[in-house]
Design brief:
183 residues; mainly beta; five-stranded antiparallel sheet
Length: 183
């Protein structure tokens, strides 16, 4: 019965339903020793879509580094009503949309264009017309900025283990314990 309520909660909360997830992991190399790793998953049925958007993503996380030392983290469970959250991913190209593809600020992962909304103690990433860069403690990290046209690929890796905070709710399709009917 608890699984039923967990599934019901996920349905009512608007969490994406993921019947069969596909997972992509990525690495980003910024300027001056800054880098990022992360991963996302979404339902396999969307793989043929032209663009995967933030509402399609079931799990997501990023970890930021400076010279190999972790400086921040953001995951989908940290999403709230004031979070800047935009994502545009093209599965056929295995790449995130970068500047120049007709989508203003195609990536805003807990960071708006000004870099002043990632939260005190927070961390975020943005890709817009000025560049690709980080936010930390509500301040842009200008030193991390690279050209906005720099390709940003991702690698499909369905064996990747998502950290618990990357997924706001369990993949709910198939988890319902429905009563068995006997013929």
């Amino acid at each position: 019965m608890n699984r039923f309520f967990a599934c019901l909660f996920a349905l009512l909360s608007g969490a994406p339903l993921v019947a069969e997830p596909v997972t992509y992991r990525f690495q980003w190399q910024g300027a001056d020793g800054y880098s990022m790793t992360g991963a996302m998953s979404f339902d396999r049925s969307l793989i043929a879509e032209r663009v995967i958007r933030e509402g399609d993503v079931a799990c997501f996380h990023i970890d930021g580094f400076f010279e190999g030392q972790q400086i921040g983290r953001w995951a989908l469970t940290m999403l709230h009503e004031r979070t800047s959250w935009r994502l545009h991913f093209v599965p056929r190209e295995e790449a995130f949309v970068v500047e120049g593809r007709g989508i203003p600020m195609p990536q805003a992962w807990n960071m708006n264009g000004a870099g002043d909304d990632c939260g005190e103690g927070g961390f975020g990433f943005n890709l817009g017309n000025l560049g690709q860069d980080f936010c930390r403690n509500d301040e842009p990290l200008f030193a991390s900025r690279i050209d906005p046209f720099t390709p940003f690929p991702a690698i499909r890796d369905d064996q990747y283990e998502m950290p618990a905070d990357a997924c706001p709710g369990p993949p709910v399709i198939g988890l319902l314990d429905l009563p068995q009917t006997h013929s």
